[in-house]
Amino acid sequence: MKSLKQFVPVFCLGLLLSACSSQSNKPQFVIEPPSEAQIATSVKEQVSLTLNAFTPVAGQALPNNTVLTAYKARGYEPVWIKDKTIDMSIYKLVDILQDSHTHGLNPIHYHTDIIKNYLELKQPSSQQLAEMDVIATIALTSYAHDLSNGRYEPLLIDPNWQLDAPNNNWKDLLYLDSAASMVNSLPLLAPRSPQYQVLQKWLVYYQDLAAKEKDILVEAGVPLSLGDEGPRVAQLRARLVQLGDIRFSTRKVQEDRFDSRLKKALQNFQRRHHLIADGAAGSKTIEMLNVSLTTRAKQIAYNLERWRWLPSELEANRIWVDLTNYTVDMHLNGELTSMKVVIGKAERKTPVFKGLMTYMVTNPTWRVPHRIARENLLPKLQSDPNYLIKHGYKLYSSWGIGAKELDSTKIDWKNINPEKLAYRFEQEPDEGNALGQFKFMFPNKNEIYLHDTPAKHLFRERNRAFSSGCVRLEDPHEFAKQITKGSKSYNEMLNKLKNNSNSVVSLPSYIPVYLVYFTVVPNANGMPEFRNDVYQRDDLMEEAMGYVAFQANESI
After folding, report:
1. Are 252 and 357 in the same domain?
2. Which of 391, 423, 455 is the last residue of a domain?
3. Can you give the residue ranges of the L,D-TPase catalytic domain (predicted)?
4. Are residue 54 and residue 66 in the same domain, yes or no?
């Protein structure tokens, strides 16, 4: 696409008139431009009208009053016209907006074609100049907001996605002293995480590749492995070259022979797609290989939007529960410690949110949440009235402080309506307690926390979505040690454990906890790692972000 700077309109008044006056051998034409007062008056008249006409679409949460307030603050002087001349920064703005797809955003939301149409007018009126100025400012503001905070409201996409950290830094851009400063500040609003920046580069790679090349597909058939030969091996090699797992080399190879280099490249591909890295191209691996470049680009775009819902800068000390990787990463005191976790099963998804870990409990009593009591415990009691006694539970008449302890064997469980179940169930601390020896608390409305578990065998599984929503830790002792290291809380915790004491231990400092969900992340080598969409959240992103323009004959 040609740069807009090649379409500078004739009415760029001061520039053009000065250029004409320097060419004495040509006829001179004097065009009487609208006065600055006329333009400012027209801007004032157009602001409200144009704001209403260009209301944000597709779930964007941008208040129109932001633009109106900014124009009021500048006395309705135009942003993009100064000294009777269109500021050249508007062309750079349009170029940036047209490249918004490189961040996974849609240029159609930023009115680029409309702005270009105004810029191509030969002799615009003051009203047209005002319209152009307001629309360009709306586009600038929308893009600044979307790049900084994300375009979409996460809760409108997924009720279980409760992590949204909007900031107002993007509004400051409207009060800079020049249009050039505003435009030049736009790129600084993107998330600063290195992961975001690496993913953005891969998005551009996939977008460009999809535009230039067709997908190289591997035909279905028997598994391919070391030593095999034939056209399907050549397809496999070509696909791995296309996807970047095999770097271009001038060294001659037998394209249709499965050699050790091809096996190593395939293992790298399998690892970054969460497959068993056996170096053989079976049906699942071929299915992953044949996912289109366009689909992969979309997946990356979804995850860039998820990054924009996070704070622009993350705390140095934080706990990062990576749900799709089934791990928890402790970023504490400049060190990183990781361990496996078990997360909520598909029907009881662990929500995405941020909390603040303030204390832990040693040898905890488990108060069974209402939902688990209704859906898990009640059916077991209806089959076996002695279930509570066998598994160390106590039963109380209600959730009140003075609730009376009851004999669970004397209750007719089969005639209890699950919706009216009001008893409190508590499992006493012991080896079989569902919470094990620890629970780590960051108070939240979801009643989610990190805890120990007696079901250690689950950590041997590759996909570990087995819990009722809370997060189970592979090594809670190590976790407790890391979050209390070098403080008296650590020794206090050890003493409580020795005494089998059910006690609360306050943390020496509170730690932010992020429960996050990404289906594409950069791996240690900077390659995109495509993960299983455990909770089918990419489908919801596709529904929200898969905007396609209407054709004229499809409009209402």
Report:
1. no
2. 423
3. 317-492
4. yes
Digitized pLDDT (tens) for each residue of the chain, 556 residues in all = 444 343 333 333 333 333 333 444 444 444 456 666 776 677 777 776 676 666 554 444 454 678 888 999 998 899 999 887 899 999 999 999 999 999 999 999 899 999 999 999 988 888 888 889 999 999 999 999 999 999 999 999 999 999 998 888 899 999 999 999 999 999 999 999 999 999 999 999 999 999 999 999 999 999 999 999 999 999 999 999 999 999 876 567 889 999 999 999 999 999 999 999 999 999 999 999 999 999 999 999 999 999 999 998 899 999 999 999 999 999 999 999 999 999 999 999 999 999 999 999 999 988 888 888 998 899 999 999 999 998 889 999 998 888 999 999 999 999 999 988 999 999 888 777 889 999 999 999 999 999 999 999 999 999 999 999 999 999 999 999 999 988 899 888 888 888 888 899 999 999 999 999 999 999 999 999 999 999 999 999 999 888 655 555 554 4
Q: Cite the active site residues.
A: 451, 470
DSSP 317-338: SEEEEEGGGTEEEEEETTEEEE
- 176 shares its domain with 242: no
Q: How many domains does the chain have?
A: 4
Same domain, 253 and 391: no
Say if CB 452 and CB 341 are below 8 A apart.
no
Q: Which domain holds residue 473?
A: 310-365+429-546
371 and 360 inside one domain: no
Query: What is the C-alpha to C-alpha distance for residues 162 and 159, in angstroms, rounded to an integer?
Result: 7
Pairing of strands 335-344, 471-473: antiparallel
